[in-house]
């Protein structure tokens, strides 16, 4: 009899708890259909999808308190991760409210609990997106990130997979960039915070924060990549156990080198140079003569790609209608592209290449090109790519082709990711090193963070 009574009590408790769950779920469903609630959210579509997978009180149920407190600690430390705490509803999500839910739950209504639960979810989804994509990503707006899985990453799914794990904080932090430059920034910030040494380094911190943001805009997680940093005029070829370094020349402020991500698929020895029309018309045309063309190994072509025999009469026609003609420079020791050019898909028409003007690498300020990137150790970079590709036997072939100015394509079996970025600060041997903001990009990004404090 006692056993039957006990079973009856358990069954009754289960019914009562089930009823409470339904009521909780109804409160969340009601708020997620409320326009005013949705208008407060940074990522409303992601929040809706999250609760579609997790139809319950995820953070404010009494059994979820430890996760809620861990989440609050993470959001409260946003500045230490180069983000702004003001982005994460911390005026409404407070430790005091969590304490009330824990100690005196009768003082808060189910609607208030549901509202806090939804805000916590939106805050964490926002935090995950900001850590992974950055706060001011130029390629992806918040609304696009909210509606799409990008390269297999969707914050609502990430949060769903880690919300029940004990180590919630560490798992969320894993969405950050894996690139070593970012880790160096984060380690340096952690040291400053650990030593409570912030005020003396306020200027440094501002620079570090905007450059961490730029690194979040990158997609690559490969251990092998070529990185060009415009402000430091450097190229690095990162492999698992080594880094190859070279100086570079980048675009002038008037003809900026673009930031981009692509893949080097092949390179070419002894390239000819098809002169961009802007350079031809603005720079070459005023000084064009038959002697100038001959001395620099330039050939002129018509609109159909036929080579044009240049004489005094033809020069007058070219000057009158330059848009009908194009110019190419044949391979040779004075070719603008040097002995080798590295090709990669991009919408800017730029590439990495050697140069005949090696003396320019002795300059401190090397923003000198029309946008393409000149590599001081271009031959050595080509050798490195062949070695990485398992094609060491092609190195003598490449060397001969370069010396004899013979055009030959070298296609990589393992294309190498390329990153061209703009970092005005790096951590070297544990110390920040700052570079001139040659394109004046920093103030705009700094202002965005300052306005969002």
Please give the structural blueprint.
Blueprint: H1 2-32, H2 35-39, H3 44-53, H4 65-76, H5 95-103, H6 110-133, H7 142-147, H8 155-162, H9 168-173, H10 180-194, H11 202-216, E1 225-229, E2 234-238, E3 243-251, E4 260-269, E5 273-274, H12 277-284, H13 290-295, E6 298-301, E7 307-308, H14 312-320, E8 326-329, E9 340-343, E10 352-353, E11 367-369, E12 373-375, H15 378-388, H16 395-403, E13 408-421, E14 425-428, E15 431-434, H17 442-451
Parallel strand pairs: 1-13, 3-11, 10-12
Antiparallel strand pairs: 1-2, 2-3, 3-12, 4-9, 4-13, 5-8, 6-7, 6-8, 9-10, 14-15
Task: Write up this protein.
The chain is an alpha+beta fold. It contains 17 helices and 15 strands. The chain has helices spanning 2-32, 35-39, 44-53, 65-76, 95-103, 110-133, 142-147, 155-162, 168-173, 180-194, 202-216, 277-284, 290-295, 312-320, 378-388, 395-403, 442-451, and strands at 225-229, 234-238, 243-251, 260-269, 273-274, 298-301, 307-308, 326-329, 340-343, 352-353, 367-369, 373-375, 408-421, 425-428, 431-434. The strands form three sheets. Strands 1-2-3-12-10-9-4-13 form an eight-stranded mixed barrel. A hairpin with an 8-residue loop joins strand 9 (340-343) and strand 10. The longest helix has 31 residues, at 2-32. The protein is elongated. The termini are far apart. Mean pLDDT is 89; it is low at 1-23.
